[in-house]
Amino acid sequence: MESRLGHLLVRNGVLEARQVTRALAEQARTGAPFGLVCEQLFGVDPKHIEQAWADQYAGLTQEVDLSREPLTPDVLGLISRRQAWQFGVVPVRWDSGELMVATIPSMLVRAHRFVNRTVDGPAFFVMTSRSELLQVLSAQYPLPGAKLPNERNATSNAAA
Q: Is the pLDDT of residue 46 over 60?
């Protein structure tokens, strides 16, 4: 699967191929981030850039089976039950000084914003299946009646 941001923006119907070519030339000239160039040149909504980034990241990062991952109690305590469900995240463990956090691709933008604002220190994301995420959330962060937010709108209203 092609994972370049420009390709993903074309695939998502946000840009045309000729616009990507123009944006790449402008990026080479200015050194500005590709997404910022697209916002400035073509008025691309930052939400579209974020979603393409999330698609890119999810395609490149490790996928884990949470039933086989040892969950570390001290990291599970970093977030509340409400936060775990609201942002679709499960802190897994510290890995070489970075917090490993599991989520699903459709929740990645929301999860990233939350972790970036909440966790003191570096973190990285791994992907899991929706069913595994729900099983771990139910077991580790029980909250009667809790559901994941509407995943299609997971990029909006993501403030902690």
A: yes
Within 10 Å of residue 89's Cβ, how many Cβ atoms?
Answer: 29
Q: What separation in angstroms does the CA of 8 have from each of 11, 17, 76?
A: 5, 10, 33
- 8-state DSSP, 95: E
Give the DSSP H or E segment for 91: strand 90-95
**Nearest alpha-carbon partner for 126 in 90, 85, 153:** 90
Q: Does the model's pTM come out above 0.85?
A: no
**Confidence class for position 158, pLDDT limits 50, 70, 90:** very low
Q: Which residues contact 103 (CB under 8 A, 6 or more apart)?
A: 87, 88, 89, 90, 111, 125, 127, 128, 133
Q: What is the largest CA-CA distance in the chain?
A: 54
